Amino acid sequence: MRSMTGFGRATRSTEEMNLVVEIKTVNSRYLDLNLRVPRELNSLEQKLRKEVQSHLDRGRVELHFELHPKSGNQHDLNEALVENYLAIAEKVRSLGATGELDVSSVLQLPGVFVPREVELSPEGILEQIVEALREALEKVVSTRSNEGAALKKDFQDRLEKLMKLTDRIAEQAEQILEYYREKLKKRVEKLTQEQHLDENRLAQEILHYADRSDIAEEITRLRSHVSQFQEYLSGSEDEAIGRRLDFISQEMGREMNTILSKSPLPAISELAVEGKTEIEKIREQVQNVE
Question: What is the rounded distance in angstroms from the CA atom of residue 32 to the CA atom of residue 61?
Fold first, then answer.
């Protein structure tokens, strides 16, 4: 299991260029790729996107390339600057200065020579670019895996607590029948003013109310959802399970809400509120699972 938060950086240096690749990822419902590349790499954008998609399934991905071509040992003459130097020299002479500005002196002036930019061929540097991208992606996956391990431990602790709460709710649920029996008996006795009480009719009314408040099915389904959640946690680390865990946690919340609404016993309500709190924390954490 991996989270959707990660960072990776890789660099490459060749005779032609210096390259920096940086990737930042955060949680998102789908794979949302924001790719920023220099114009020299525009023709490679689709290949770069496919490479990212082969490593990541979900999350917002900020991918940034910095490409700096090297000049090598070749230079060009900055003609505009030389013309400016010569114009200035002519103006100085018009003010009465003497002497000539020869070629040797001009060539020693700052900025006369400028490095010649190397024209990069995207296909020619593709291998180095893909290698750097893969290295950065591997670092992203590594950081996501490390955070995923921490999330997994938190999930396991909360699921264990949730299962214990469910067991305690199941124990308390056995008292629902007795609760309604005593409640109805007191009401009937009051209405009949100690006249003869029909035990069969009372039993039917108890069963009617108890059936409306029966939470056995909700408890069974809740236990099943918890077990299914735990099974996904035990699966392959590379498997994207975020959407499935989100669905299961929603179902757990639905069952606990039903238990809370149906139960007449304060003890069960207190346990259900505590369980609901744990489920909400699980759902919040699930939003960052890939």
Answer: 6
